[in-house]
Write a structure and sequence with these properties.
Strand order of the largest sheet: 5-4-7-8-9
CATH architecture of one domain: 3-Layer(aba) Sandwich
Strand content: 5-15%
Helix content: 40-55%
Radius of gyration: 37 Å
Order of helices and strands: HHHHEEEHEHEHEEHEEHHEH
Structural class: alpha/beta
Number of helices: 11
Distance between the termini: 110 Å
């Protein structure tokens, strides 16, 4: 026991020596490790000295916080996939990390592959083809340029995604690019036989600032239906009829091509995982953002020059030149060089019935016959 006490006394002496050395460099002495030192408490400290001691402690705390505040880990904003819909990235912001997090690299089993996709495949892992993300990023940027230029020239862009869960991404992309969307079944013949299927759709006339110009309703009643200038298909395997109709009418197409799809079905393929909803949201958002950039460039050019970037629609006569004596609205009379464009919009059945009734009244007075509207 004497050896233990001797060892404890030696250790206490060493600690006291360290305390004295440490207190010599500090403004506030550290608490003593000697048990007997706690029994003696100085009660004669003045309040002013106590306040000064607290101020010194606070100053020392702020100094230590300034020196060690940058140490340790910094929690940065984590990956938030919901922003792919609310605020999709631009084509310049597409990175390999984003595509990897969206599972764009995962293909199908090697037994289901299409040999035409060999140039897009990086390798094989556990019996599954891995798509090269560098190729995906390059093809996505190329497709974005196509969408941007089509919107820059006031073209009609149709976004199609008919799988479950793709409707939100398709609608959002169409809103950004000021295009049209389809998230239900494609009606066969909507392009090749569009006059019979879409003949009841309303067509309106716009000026170079996308403002509707009234007075052309009678001229547009029997006008041929409009066709899209570009079709973006997010699931080509289920929309072969749509892609075939686009090919027959020389309409360029953009499609997400997985390892089991045929890249020759579309004009501009984007090799990626079409089964990943997050990947589809990334691709649709990037293309929609590219279309938004093109629309802004077109409207800026029209506002600065007062001219449109597309030719005037053929077969339309300004309302002031009609034979029935009608006068044109003020915005049309003030600038007769406004370039007009027709874009399709779904018409209400009651509006269509009212148009047919007006046509019946006019034709009945002129030719003595009426047009019968089918239900």
């Amino acid at each position: 026991s004497s050896d233990v006490e001797t060892s404890a006394e030696n250790s206490l002496k060493q600690l006291q020596a360290l305390e004295s050395q440490l207190n010599a460099h500090l403004h506030q002495p550290v608490p003593s490790l000697d048990p007997e030192a706690d029994a003696t408490v100085d009660t004669t400290t003045a309040p002013s000295q106590l306040v000064q001691s607290i101020a010194e402690q606070y100053h020392l705390h702020k100094q230590q916080q300034q020196l060690s505040g940058k140490l340790g880990s910094d929690i940065s904003p984590h990956y938030q996939p919901h922003t792919l819909l609310s605020n999709p990235p631009s084509p310049a912001d597409v990175t390999l990390e984003l595509l990897l997090a969206s599972e764009a690299h995962q293909g199908h089993a090697t037994s289901l592959w299409n040999p035409a996709n060999a140039r897009y495949i990086h390798g094989i892992r556990q019996g599954t083809h891995i798509i090269s993300l560098e190729v995906t990023a390059a093809h996505l940027r190329r497709a974005s340029k196509v969408v941007q230029q089509v919107c820059r020239n006031a073209g009609i862009v149709l976004f199609v995604g008919t799988r479950d869960g793709q409707d939100t991404a398709v609608v959002r992309a169409a809103q950004l690019a000021k295009g049209y969307h389809l998230f239900e079944r494609w009606i066969p013949g909507s392009i090749t036989n569009g006059q019979q299927i879409l003949g009841k759709c309303r067509t309106k006339v716009l000026n170079h600032l996308d403002e509707e110009v009234p007075g052309f309703e009678e001229q547009l009643f029997d006008r041929p239906v409009l066709r899209p200038d570009l079709v973006v298909c997010l699931n080509p395997l289920e929309n072969y009829v749509l892609l075939h109709e686009c090919a027959l009418n020389q309409i360029p197409t953009i499609g997400v091509i997985d390892t089991n799809a045929d890249p020759t079905w579309v004009t501009y393929p984007i090799p990626a995982n079409d089964d990943s909803l997050r990947c589809i949201q990334v691709i649709a958002g990037v293309l929609g953002r590219a279309g938004e950039t093109g629309q802004k460039q077109r409207l800026r050019h029209a506002d600065e020059t007062g001219e449109a970037v597309y030719p005037r629609a053929s077969g339309l006569t300004l309302p002031e030149q009609l034979d029935d004596g009608t006068t044109a609205p003020s915005e049309v009379q003030s600038d007769s060089n406004d370039v007009l464009s027709a874009k399709g919009d779904i018409v209400d059945e009651r509006e269509l019935a009212a148009k047919l009734e007006d046509a019946n009244n006019r034709d009945g007075r002129r030719h003595g016959h009426r047009i019968k509207a089918s239900s």
